[in-house]
Amino acid sequence: MIASAPASVTAILLAGARPIPDPLAVAAGVPVKPLAPVAGEPMINRPARALLDHAAIGQVIVLTQRADAFAADPATAWLGAHPRVRFERGGAGIASSLLALMEAGDLPFPLLLTTADHVLLDRAMLDQFIAEATGADIAVAMVERATLLARYPQSRRTWLKFRDGGWSGANIFWFGSDKARPVIALWQEVEQDRKKGWKILSAFGPLALIGALLRISTLRGGMARVGRRFGLVARLVAMAQPEACIDADKQADVDLIEAILAAR
């Protein structure tokens, strides 16, 4: 049984800059990727509006090293003026920045984390994710390969392969309580290898790695095993919408996203 959604979720919108110049930012002539235009406006605007328009979301924290760049751009200056939006300075990595905010004690749970390049994020995705993640200490949104390719066969993703299919991250994460802190600390250790599925799996123990390689483990079972290891409730949210794992990571993604938005 899925628990009812909490009255107020703290959303964290990642809008940082990588150490090396991002090709989309360079091509658009903007200082950070979230300011690069998609469908006529900076990509950060659509996920920011989706979060602010959802009844379960309380405050939205924009995590970035360049708050000044968003304030200076007329198309994103509204974020700094919004009463439910605040900017926090990001550090060298996502996990380290999260831990720093937690240490400051001004980060009320539950937390929903997503990215500024999640341009297709909408109410339906948030409805499903919040409903299924509520009650978990940590939850991760994923899209199964068949779900995506049935509608968008041209889309190229990084897949983690398990007995219950191939899975791609949907860039939506849930941290329901302070019990998630050890998992975030582990994330900090391996986030530089986030595109290397085997490295992430091995961090959760040899059984998870071997099980994935031999196709004897399901992703859902693996999540439950991670939860047991850390003494918490860990949950996979298998997203129904294939668009949930299409982010604006490269120009081909932007072209696809703009086609999807135009069709809507």
Ranges with pLDDT <50 over ≥5 residues? Answer: none
Helix content: 25-40%
Report the average pLDDT across residues.
89
Regarding quaternary structure, what we see is: single chain
CATH topology: Spore Coat Polysaccharide Biosynthesis Protein SpsA, Chain A
Tally of strands: 10
Rg result:
18 Å
**CATH-defined superfamily:** Spore Coat Polysaccharide Biosynthesis Protein SpsA, Chain A
What is the domain tally? 1
* SSE series: EHEEHEHHEHEHEHEEHHHHEH
CATH architecture: Alpha-Beta Complex
Give the N-to-C terminal Cα separation: 33 Å
Question: Beta-strand percentage?
Answer: 15-25%
Question: How is the biggest beta sheet arranged?
Answer: 8 strands, mixed
What is the CATH class? Alpha Beta
Question: What does this molecule look like?
Answer:
The chain has about 260 residues and is α/β, with parallel strands linked by helices. The protein has a single domain (about 10-260), classed as Spore Coat Polysaccharide Biosynthesis Protein SpsA, Chain A (Alpha-Beta Complex). The protein is built from 12 helices and 10 strands. The strands form 2 sheets. Strands 1, 4, 5, 6, 7, 8, 9 and 10 form an 8-stranded mixed beta sheet that branches. Strands 2-3 form a two-stranded antiparallel sheet. Strand 8 (about 160) and strand 9 (about 165-175) form a beta hairpin. Helix 5 (about 95-105) packs antiparallel against helix 8 (about 180-190) and helix 9 (about 195-205) packs antiparallel against helix 10. The model has no long low-confidence stretch (mean pLDDT about 90). This is GTP:adenosylcobinamide-phosphate guanylyltransferase. InterPro entries: MobA-like_NTP_Trfase (IPR025877), Nucleotide-diphossugar_trans (IPR029044).
